[in-house]
Design brief:
The protein is mainly beta and 119 residues long. 0% of the residues lie in helices and 54% in strands.
Length: 119
């Protein structure tokens, strides 16, 4: 059974930092891309960053470029999202997801972790 389990969310003041973790299990992700997405109340889901499991190639949305960093630890089967310079606009539920490389649709999703940034 494939599982993606996020952790690390919480309440932080504006300007602060958080690191989210996504522990992946249940299959080999060597041909997959892992992504972090978020959804704020009343807004559409937004893709933030992706990383290829094998080569480590990364991509970022313009809204988080320079503030967020995605990384992976293959030995721990874990993907991270380091978030710096947080603002109240970053308040959302953050999801980890996995899709096969070259495809658009995500096959697997985590349960989400709440990030709240206070002003």
């Amino acid at each position: 059974q494939v599982q993606l389990v996020e952790s690390g969310g919480g309440l932080v003041q504006a300007g602060g930092s958080l690191r989210l973790s996504c522990a992946a299990s249940g299959r080999s992700f060597s041909t997959y891309v892992l992504g972090w997405l978020r959804q704020a109340p009343g807004k559409e889901r937004e893709s933030l960053a992706t990383i290829s499991w094998s080569g480590g190639t990364t991509s970022y949305a313009d809204s988080v470029k320079g503030r967020f960093t995605i990384s992976r630890d293959n030995a721990k089967n874990t993907v991270y999202l380091q978030m710096n310079s947080l603002s109240p606009e970053d308040t959302a539920v953050y999801y980890c997801a996995a899709r096969r490389a070259g495809l658009i649709k995500y096959d697997y999703w985590g349960q989400g972790t709440q990030v709240t940034v206070s002003s």
